[in-house]
Design brief:
The chain is mostly helical and 122 residues long. It has helices at residues 2-37, 41-64, 72-90, 95-121. Mean pLDDT is 84; it is low at 11-20.
Length: 122
């Protein structure tokens, strides 16, 4: 009986921990958009459910590609999820905020390409 209770406690703690972690990532995502684009509180409230859906899609992607050794399909799916979220967010942004987001993403892409080129030289 003690083993069953202990096992259930561990499982429950894992579920609660995973849920808290997903909420933290959702909050981080919303805060990231606030920082990148200068979202208003009203816009941030609209982004929150979008970010929650994004986190669910990411969890599904990770589960689907857990055994993917070369990781290429997982990377493509992650990029598609990120692009989908950006497109949803862009729908509520002002033109100035869209410009900020696009500039941030362009800088991100440039830094990733630079890191990849540096890594290739090693």
């Amino acid at each position: 009986m003690k083993k069953i209770i202990l096992t259930l406690s561990i499982v429950l703690a894992g579920i609660i921990g995973a849920n808290a972690q997903a909420k933290d990532h959702t909050t981080e995502t919303v805060e990231g958009y606030k920082k990148m684009c200068g979202l208003t509180d009203e816009q941030a409230a609209k982004v929150k459910p979008m970010a929650e859906n994004y986190m669910k899609a990411e969890e599904a992607r990770k589960a689907k590609y857990a055994q993917d050794k070369d990781n290429k399909e997982s990377v493509k799916a992650e990029a598609a999820n990120k692009e989908d979220l950006d497109n949803q967010v862009k729908a509520i942004l002002t033109p100035e905020q869209k410009t900020k987001l696009e500039a941030y993403r362009a800088k991100e892409k440039q830094e990733a390409e630079k890191a990849k080129a540096t890594e290739g030289k090693k």
